[in-house]
Amino acid sequence: MDFFPTLAGIGGAAVPTDRIIDGKDIRPLVFAAEGAASEHEAFFYYKRNSIEAVRSGRWKLHIRKDDEEVRGLYDLAADVAESANLYAEHPEVVRELMGKIEACRRDLGDEAAGVQGENVRPVGRVDHPDTLTHLDPEHPYMVALYDLKERG
């Protein structure tokens, strides 16, 4: 989840207006303001670069699990454990949530579906990157994620 607009708001900074910012300023939710509501219409679950599920309101639709397609619809207001698959019983909800997934695919892409998003920005790169720490075999420590070779 992109907290940039929220943290910028807390710090009194302006959010850039020359590009699409994925996040929303959720300070009212964070500070439990009366009547606070999420500005997000839906929450998308990605694994790597592929959409696996979407949640909107009480409903959550699963379309993929790892490398396999799935069909699962769950009413989280009645079944937080996602134990009763209601996919066949609510085709109208499935259509609505699939519409949200299609819009998200157009925006951010979905590798599993072979869709390149219209608003995907290139990954940022640094010339001659160097890790924050360096492994000293004479003084071993737990390897940090930013010490891994595939760090970017």
Q: Helices and strands in order, then pairings?
A:
Layout (H helix, E strand, L loop, with lengths): L3 H8 L15 H4 L12 E5 L2 E7 L2 E7 L2 E8 L15 H18 L44
Antiparallel strand pairs: 1-2, 2-3, 3-4
In oligomeric terms, what are we looking at? single chain
Strand order of the largest sheet: 1-2-3-4
Order of helices and strands: HHEEEEH
Number of domains: 2
From the 3D coordinates, which CATH architecture of the largest domain would you assign? 2-Layer Sandwich
Helix content: 10-25%
- The tally of beta strands, per DSSP, is 4
Fraction in beta strands: 15-25%
Low-confidence segments, given as residue ranges, are none
Structure classification: alpha+beta
Helical segment tally? 3
Radius of gyration, rounded?
A: 20 Å
In short:
This protein has 152 residues and is an alpha+beta fold. It has helices at 4-11, 27-30, 91-108; strands at residues 43-47, 50-56, 59-65, 68-75.
What does the model show?
- This protein has 152 residues and is α+β, with helices and mostly antiparallel strands.
- It folds into 2 domains: 1-39, no CATH class; 41-125, Arylsulfatase, C-terminal domain, CATH 3.30.1120.10.
- The protein has 3 helices and 4 strands; from the N terminus they run H-H-E-E-E-E-H.
- The protein has a 4-stranded antiparallel sheet with strand order 1-2-3-4, covered by helices on one side.
- Strand 1 (43-47) and strand 2 (50-56) form a beta hairpin.
- It is extended and about 60 Å long.
- The two termini are 21 Å apart.
